[in-house]
Design brief:
2 copies of one chain form a homodimer. Chain A has 2 domains: 48 residues, Arc Repressor Mutant, subunit A; 122 residues, Tetracycline Repressor, domain 2. Chain A is 66% helix and 0% strand. Chain A starts with 7 loop residues before the first helix and ends in a 12-residue tail after the last helix. At the A-B interface, helix 5, helix 7, helix 8 and helix 9 of A face helix 5, helix 7, helix 8 and helix 9 of B. Chain A binds a DNA duplex through helix 3. Chains A, B: It holds the Pfam family TetR_N. Chains A, B: Keywords: DNA-binding, Transcription, Transcription regulation. Chains A, B: This is TetR/AcrR family transcriptional regulator.
Chain lengths: 200, 200
DNA sequence: CGTATGATGGCATCACGTGTCATCACTTCG
DNA sequence: CGAAGTGATGACACGTGATGCCATCATACG
């Protein structure tokens, strides 16, 4: 498969990230991106549904990968443990090597609400994939949906902390830290008005 | 203020919801909406940033309202309790009266990924408003962000259950049910491999 | 060598979204 | 009571995003 240039989508992605970083997202037109990649506008829209989608090429396989991780997980775990198992497997992967690229892309995404919007949709799609995998594993619908959503929040939160913090702290460490924080927050608000809130 | 017709935005919203329900979202053009409302295309884009935004007119004041609720909340509560306090105040409000309208709008939003995308952005903006209010109240940044995100997930989950379930179950009941479910899920996955997962 | 397959180029077309200026209704003030 | 001011709307032009359609070219296969 892939005959002419097998990396048309990758070339377009490279050109887009370069141009977005140089001129900004709105100042870059689709013909600009296609021209730098040596292709035409029509070809761009054959590889990407719209202009925003070019920034999320790498995330296309995420839902399937996470669903596979949940399916392979050891049996006998509750939904929340299953989700955390899958997320830790992802965090412990080779994601650490791509920190620089992820940071560059994040700067672009955060510069435009349109792109943040798309990022949220991709995150929701990932949560839905996790939910479906949990349901397929026998979990109750409501439990599966909530566990998947909470897992998505935990992963986004730890990713944010990992990218913002020093580079000697691993994503896995941040994920476990977020997991601890969640546990503390949810447990604390249990009928105890004397619980002091954290000071600044 | 508001001289000619003080409800231009509301008329446009009505026209849009009618047309979206009749022909579908993509088959309806902005000139169509403006014509039914007795206005022009240019005026439509003065009231709404884009075509999708017309479906979220009512949610514009949500962030400010929730931030106000969190500011007025009794002191001495931890971040999670503060968020739940605010969400319960909203759920106990007059939201129950609008169930029909909310259902109609939800059907449109779920028919198009573009609209679901915008809904997620609005939800994220609400979570950010809660986070900022918590930080202003003295909470730690990480705790505030996580509590706000979890609160948003809980509210969306309970709203979904409320809209899908029988109409004699209140939103407040669903919210507290989701809160219980979260507590159980987070507590269960605590170092106990013998915990059985829920059967179908 | 001829044909089939699939990616790409080129063109036309429509809808979205914005900048700009004119117009009209209503208010305010002399 | 009339004139200037304010603010919403109408009208027009324009660039970009996105899609349908057909032609073209390179590669694979018989």
């Amino acid at each position: 498969m892939a005959r002419w240039a097998p990396d048309a989508a990758l070339r377009l992605e490279r050109a887009a990230i370069e141009l977005f970083s140089e001129r900004g997202y709105t100042a870059t037109t689709v013909p600009d991106i296609a021209a730098r990649a040596g292709l035409t506008t029509r070809t761009f829209f054959r590889h990407f549904a719209d202009k925003r989608d070019v920034l999320f090429l790498r995330e296309r396989e995420f839902p399937a990968v996470v669903a596979g991780l949940l399916a392979e997980a050891p049996a006998g775990l509750d939904p929340m443990a299953l989700v955390l198992h899958g997320l830790e497997a992802v965090a412990a992967g080779d994601l650490e090597r791509w920190r620089g690229d992820i940071l560059a892309r994040r700067a672009i995404v955060r510069s435009e609400p349109q792109l943040r919007e798309r990022e949220l949709l991709k995150s929701a799609a990932l949560a839905e994939a996790m939910r479906d995998a949990l349901v397929a594993g026998g979990a109750a619908d409501d439990d599966a949906a909530l566990a998947a959503s909470v897992g998505s929040v935990l992963f986004d939160s730890s990713m944010e902390a990992w990218l913002r913090g020093p580079d000697d702290v691993t994503l896995l460490t941040e994920l476990r830290s977020a997991r601890e924080r969640l546990h503390r927050l949810v447990s604390a608000q249990r009928s105890d008005p004397s619980a002091a809130r954290a000071a600044s």
